[in-house]
Design brief:
It is a single chain. With 157 residues, the protein is an alpha+beta fold. It has a domain at 17-110: Translation Initiation Factor IF3 (2-Layer Sandwich), CATH 3.30.110. It is built from two helices and five strands, in the order αβββαββ. The chain has helices at residues 2-14, 70-83; strands spanning 20-27, 40-43, 53-64, 88-96, 100-110. The chain has a five-stranded mixed sheet with strand order 1-3-5-4-2, covered by helices on one side. β4 and β5 form a beta hairpin. It is elongated and about 100 Å long.
Length: 157
């Protein structure tokens, strides 16, 4: 009995650092045959593709634990959209919390061939740590005489 309790406790502790991603969809049209190329992701603040397209579904991914990061959520959206036969996910939003992340977008199929999405240009990380602005010298205290001091001690009168 004691060994069963230890095995159960060990398996519960093994899942503490784990995470998973759930995907869901709301179908707008019937799914299409699976595409062979990678599904493109267009974020909400990006321009829509110039090729004509039509919507197939609204897809969402919810990540938990260590799978609640943008990379895992975007990969889950892309994989789910691929199974529905989509070529891209447009108007994608990703919201991150402490231990949960949510991503959603519209799964679309292109009606004509055309160029792929441009490769995103990420800001370059600075090579060296910038020097902080000059810090003024600390102020030194100034001694002032007490009002009850005599004139020989720096006081008045």
């Amino acid at each position: 009995m004691r060994s069963i309790a230890l095995v159960a406790l060990g398996s519960m502790l093994a899942f503490v650092g784990c995470g998973h991603v759930e995907t869901h969809e709301a179908m707008l049209r019937p799914a299409q045959p699976r595409t062979v190329r990678n599904v493109e992701i267009y974020m909400a603040d990006q321009a829509l593709p110039s090729r004509p397209f039509y919507e197939i579904a609204i897809v969402q991914a919810v990540g938990f634990g260590n799978k609640a990061d943008p990379e895992d959520l975007a990969e889950a959206l892309s994989a789910r959209a691929g199974t529905l036969g989509c070529d891209a996910v447009v108007r994608t939003n990703i919201d991150l919390g402490y231990s949960r992340g949510h991503a959603a977008g519209v799964c679309v199929k292109f009606m004509a061939e055309g160029p792929s999405a441009p490769t995103p240009v990420l800001p370059q990380r600075p090579r060296a740590v910038p020097t902080p602005p000059g810090v003024p010298a600390p102020l030194a205290p100034r001694w002032e005489p007490l009002p009850s001091s005599s004139p020989s001690q720096g006081g008045g009168r």
